[in-house]
Design brief:
Number of strands: 19
Shape: globular
Strand order of the largest sheet: 11-10-13-8-9-12
Strand content: 25-35%
Number of helices: 7
CATH superfamily of the largest domain: Nucleotide-binding domain of ferredoxin-NADP reductase (FNR) module
Radius of gyration: 22 Å
Distance between the termini: 53 Å
Order of helices and strands: EEHEEHEEEEEEEEHEEHEHEEHEHE
Bound molecules: flavin-adenine dinucleotide, FE2/S2 (inorganic) cluster
Number of domains: 3
Length: 372
């Protein structure tokens, strides 16, 4: 009797999505995330971060009208956007589609053996890790590598390389140790010094692209936690390259950390900037510093302080007195910090194509599906 009045569950529309070059067609529910749907159906889809930062899941839409869940200007050029380039992890299905999904490894990435050469604690949680490579590799500061110890049965974890390397056989990372983290706990365990692991690199194109941009315009660098490693590497590259030049990019650095004990590497950057005679404004924002401590600086979240930090930099140095549209912004660290900072900068009038970011998502470990 009651059954007569029961509403039939509304059926969600399904669309046909054809994947090239495999020529596999899947029925995918309207509104589904394309990457999640492909993985659920067992497609060997390449991915890494799942948050629109690494570009591993890049696709080309040949037919159909997908909805991008992020503004593509953050990661793609105008030409790439016009050619139909999307990130599968940031794409919702809203029509039948034909997409080209290149499952090959990115150009230039190689897998080599390495040894754990040195692990230096920078703070209680962040360690600077040096690897000796069995064969040389080349990369830009900010690109990332996938690390996998031979003796651990885990999927590779992603880490950003600090300084750039050209045909180099030493690579450095700043790695946050999570007590229940498989890779980071292995790295910091002194018993594993000198042990072998595999490194696959380079991936991603986060970083400073100097081609075609005015290298005298200011740089706003925003880092959270171990994101300071890659950001510091990029600032260091600028300092070395333009040392002594009166038109070198001035830099505002904003570092978000938990407490005073997590402040590291900043004095060294200041010293290098002074030696290179390049303006560097360093700002620290602490979100877990105990009330009543000796800290007289900024407290709370980075995003809450950005407008004020830029205004203060402009008051202290004319080189920072420029409209929002003049800045180039690099962001690196935990996803909430990066996302909230981007939202504030957008409100202040900055455009996605001024920004480049990397989000330190707990990407690989959180997933059960196979990675390439
Ligand atoms: C492109 C890219 C670049 C990255 N670069 C760096 C880098 O340079 N330095 C760095 O420290 N990390 C970086 N990360 C993040 C790093 O890959 C993850 O944190 C990784 O999962 C840690 O591996 P693990 O084995 O130690 O911990 P897992 O075994 O993966 O995780 C176990 C537990 O550790 C904790 N945990 C792990 N990662 C996170 C996280 N990111 N946020 C919050 N809690 C977490 C959680 O408690 C989790 O339950 C990057 C991530 C990406 C996608
Ligand atoms: S950008 Fe999609 S998985 Fe990283």
């Amino acid at each position: 009797m009651f059954g007569l009045f029961q509403r039939k569950p509304k059926e969600t529309a399904k669309f046909e999505v054809r994947f090239l070059p495999a020529n596999t067609t899947l029925q995918i529910e309207q509104g589904s995330n394309l990457l999640e749907a492909a993985l659920r159906h067992g497609m060997p889809a390449p991915y890494n971060c799942r948050v629109g930062a690494c570009k591993t899941c890049q696709i080309k839409v040949i037919e159909g009208r997908p909805k991008s869940l992020m503004e593509r200007e953050y990661v793609f050029s105008r030409q790439e956007i016009e050619a139909g380039t999307y990130l599968a992890c940031q794409t919702a299905v809203h029509s039948d589609m034909v997409i080209a999904w290149d499952n090959s490894e990115p150009d230039g990435a190689a897998k080599v053996g390495a040894r754990l050469l040195e692990v230096r604690p920078m703070t209680a949680r962040i360690h600077r890790v040096r690897l000796q490579l069995d064969a040389p590799l080349s990369w830009r500061a900010g690109q990332f590598a996938r690390l996998q110890p031979f003796e651990l049965d885990i999927t590779a974890r992603s880490y950003s390389m600090i300084a750039a390397g050209h045909h180099a056989d030493i690579v450095e990372f700043d790695i946050t140790h999570y007590p229940d983290g498989a890779l980071s706990s292995w790295i910091v365990d002194p018993a594993n010094a000198g042990k072998p692991l595999s490194i696959e690199a380079p991936f991603g194109d986060f970083g400073l692209d100097e081609t075609g941009s005015d290298t005298s315009l200011p740089l706003l660098c925003i880092a959270g936690g171990s994101g300071l490693g890659a950001i510091g590497g990029m600032i260091g590259t600028c300092l070395d390259k333009f040392s002594g030049s009166p038109t070198a990019r001035p830099v505002v650095l904003v570092y978000g950390a938990r407490d005073q004990k997590e402040i590291y590497a900043l004095d060294e950057l200041q010293r290098r900037a002074e030696a290179a005679q390049i303006p560097l404004s360093v700002n620290v924002v602490l979100d877990r510093e105990p009330a009543g401590s000796s800290w007289a600086g900024r407290r709370g979240y980075v995003a809450e302080h950005l407008t004020d930090i830029l205004a203060e930099a402009a008051r202290h140095n004319d080189r920072f007195r420029l409209p929002a549209s003049a800045w180039h912004v690099l962001l690196c660290g935990p996803t909430p910090l990066v996302d909230s900072a981007i939202a504030t900068l957008r409100q202040a009038g900055m455009h996605p194509d001024q920004m480049s970011f990397d989000k330190y998502e707990q990407g690989v470990a959180a997933t059960t599906a196979a990675v390439i």
